[in-house]
């Protein structure tokens, strides 16, 4: 199996997570270093993994970043979904600020809002590009090597941005700034945890890298609204 598989307990590289017998039975392998099962999440329901990711458990992040192999097309789909969530959030805020007093049945307003959403989608993509490039650069600088770091950083950021999906309830409930800020904070913490796990940078370094990159993107994005 892949050389990138690891024990989620001690992070030791392993050759396999389980053995498959002739009758199709799978037997989880024990790590030779810590003598614990290499990856218990293999037999867990997706809901259990999601809960542990929400709780920022390091083992869960190791599982999805190293032992759960995602095809490039799957990562791309996740990225598109998260960008759409960001675009919707930008669009929603702009709509509330500028069009509160305009009649909802105004056809010109409808088309203007539609084009605004396309602009917000482009804006979300540019912000993600700047954010990810900054984190890649700072991570490479921190580890003083390029090999595998760039890909692992991008993968870590995409897979840990599931907090952006929290904007979906906006379709049903009336949101407020506190809700937006909490969702953004959750995503940043998740990004930091995934960056630390995915690149083996210390949590302190990953925290400052993510915070600094997010601050730069915020200042850039604020400039676009002027």
From TrEMBL:
Similarity comment: Belongs to the ARV1 family.
Transmembrane segments: 72-91, 117-141, 153-172
Domain of life where this protein originates: Eukaryota
Keyword DNA repair: no
Any one annotated GO CC term: endoplasmic reticulum membrane
Function: Mediator of sterol homeostasis involved in sterol uptake, trafficking and distribution into membranes.
Organism: Brachionus plicatilis
UniProt keyword annotation of Transcription present: no
Protein name, UniProt field: Protein ARV
GO biological process, one term: sterol metabolic process
Cellular compartment(s): Endoplasmic reticulum membrane
Membrane topology according to the record: Multi-pass membrane protein
Keywords: Endoplasmic reticulum, Lipid metabolism, Lipid transport, Membrane, Transmembrane, Transmembrane helix, Transport
């Amino acid at each position: 199996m892949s050389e990138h598989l690891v024990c989620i307990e001690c992070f030791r590289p392993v050759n396999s997570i389980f053995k498959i017998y002739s009758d199709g039975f799978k037997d989880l392998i024990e790590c030779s270093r810590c003598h614990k099962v290499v990856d218990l999440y293999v037999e867990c329901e997706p809901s259990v993994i999601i809960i542990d990711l929400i709780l920022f458990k390091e083992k869960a992040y190791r599982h999805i970043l190293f032992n759960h192999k995602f095809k490039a097309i799957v990562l791309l789909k996740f990225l598109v979904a998260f960008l759409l969530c960001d675009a919707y959030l930008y669009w929603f805020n702009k709509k509330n600020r500028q069009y509160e007093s305009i009649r909802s049945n105004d056809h010109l307003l409808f088309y203007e809002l539609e084009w605004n959403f396309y602009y917000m989608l482009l804006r979300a993509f540019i912000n993600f590009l700047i954010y990810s490039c900054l984190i890649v650069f700072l991570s490479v600088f921190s580890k003083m090597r390029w090999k595998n770091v760039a890909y692992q950083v991008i993968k870590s950021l995409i897979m840990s941005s599931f907090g952006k999906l929290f904007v979906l309830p906006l379709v049903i409930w009336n949101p407020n700034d506190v809700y937006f800020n909490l969702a953004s904070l959750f995503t940043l913490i998740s990004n930091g945890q995934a960056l630390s796990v995915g690149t083996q940078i210390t949590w302190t370094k990953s925290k400052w890298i993510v915070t600094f990159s997010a601050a730069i993107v915020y200042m850039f994005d604020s400039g676009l609204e002027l």
